[in-house]
Amino acid sequence: RDAGRGQPATSSSASSPLRPGVNAMLRKVAVAAASKPHVEIRQDGDQFYIKTSTTVRTTEINFKIGESFEEETVDGRKCRSLATWENENKIYCKQTLIEGDGPKTYWTRELANDELIL
């Protein structure tokens, strides 16, 4: 389980801003911004720091695998998240909204052949 630093990223997440329930303007901005995000990942055992930078916004999260933490969904809603190892190279993180209803969201980060897959 090696963490990448400043890795180019590709996107394949079901928490995509293109899913139903996300307004059209946010979809356009997210697609433009997320096409080539810059992602920095630091790892110390099961403790992670992930910084994702796009032309629109920068997000930073700190979490430990198996422990819940608070973050925001791509459209800015507060959620409680839980990251787990899906396999030795892939993290799966389920997001649960703190308030209100909305589509179920999650994100993944996978290192495959020196490429970070979002």
TrEMBL record:
<dbReference type="GO" id="GO:0008289">
    <property type="term" value="F:lipid binding"/>
</dbReference>
<dbReference type="InterPro" id="IPR031259">
    <property type="entry name" value="ILBP"/>
</dbReference>
<dbReference type="InterPro" id="IPR000463">
    <property type="entry name" value="Fatty_acid-bd"/>
</dbReference>
<dbReference type="Pfam" id="PF00061">
    <property type="entry name" value="Lipocalin"/>
</dbReference>
<protein>
    <submittedName>
        <fullName>RABP1 protein</fullName>
    </submittedName>
</protein>
<comment type="similarity">
    <text>Belongs to the calycin superfamily. Fatty-acid binding protein (FABP) family.</text>
</comment>
<feature type="domain" description="Lipocalin/cytosolic fatty-acid binding">
    <location>
        <begin position="21"/>
        <end position="115"/>
    </location>
</feature>
<feature type="region of interest" description="Disordered">
    <location>
        <begin position="1"/>
        <end position="20"/>
    </location>
</feature>
<dbReference type="InterPro" id="IPR000566">
    <property type="entry name" value="Lipocln_cytosolic_FA-bd_dom"/>
</dbReference>
<dbReference type="InterPro" id="IPR012674">
    <property type="entry name" value="Calycin"/>
</dbReference>
